[in-house]
Amino acid sequence: MFLNEITSRITMVMTVRIPKEGVADFLEYEEKVLPLLAQHKGTLERRLSNDDGTIEVHILSFESEQAFEGYCYDPKRLEYTSIFDKSGAQTELMHLTDVV
Predict the structure, then answer these.
(1) What is the spatial distance between Cα 67 and Cα 36, in angstroms, rounded to a whole number?
(2) What is the value of pTM for the model shown?
(3) pLDDT tens readout for residues 32-65
(4) Could you say which architecture CATH assigns to the domain 3-96?
(5) CA neighbours within 13 Å on the CB side: how many for 6?
(6) Could you give the C-alpha distances from 91 to 33, 49, 51, 77, 85, in angstroms and in order?
(7) For a Cys staple, 45 with which of 2, 10, 11, 59, CB 3.0–4.6 Å?
(8) Is 34 exposed, middle or buried (0-12, 13-18, 19+ CB in 10 A)?
């Protein structure tokens, strides 16, 4: 992999806060949408959770902003929006860069 290929990837951190009663729905949603990442040249670099599943942190990377947008607007992913909404989860997404 060339250096410019490494630096052109975008990295983001998503923090998700899920009400206790919505954890099962959120996990169902994740089970359905995370496999779609690869189709959009995305990678789940790391997925962290607290003990009761009410907070998750995802570190994601995509080949480009366009690849990320493709994932966001994938019709298959959008089919599952109602499951996400039912979970009551709230997300915060931050675009970040490596500090060397």
Answers:
(1) 12
(2) 0.87
(3) 999 999 999 999 999 999 999 999 999 999 999 9
(4) 2-Layer Sandwich (3.30)
(5) 4
(6) 15, 14, 18, 16, 11
(7) 59
(8) middle
**How far apart are alpha carbons 15 and 17 in whole angstroms?**
7
- Domain ranges for the chain: 3-96
Pair of tokens at residue 5: 């290929």
DSSP string, the chain: --HHHHHHSEEEEEEEE--GGGHHHHHHHHHHHGGGGGGGTEEEEEEEE-TTSSEEEEEEEESSHHHHHHHHT-HHHHTTHHHHHHHT-EEEEEEE----
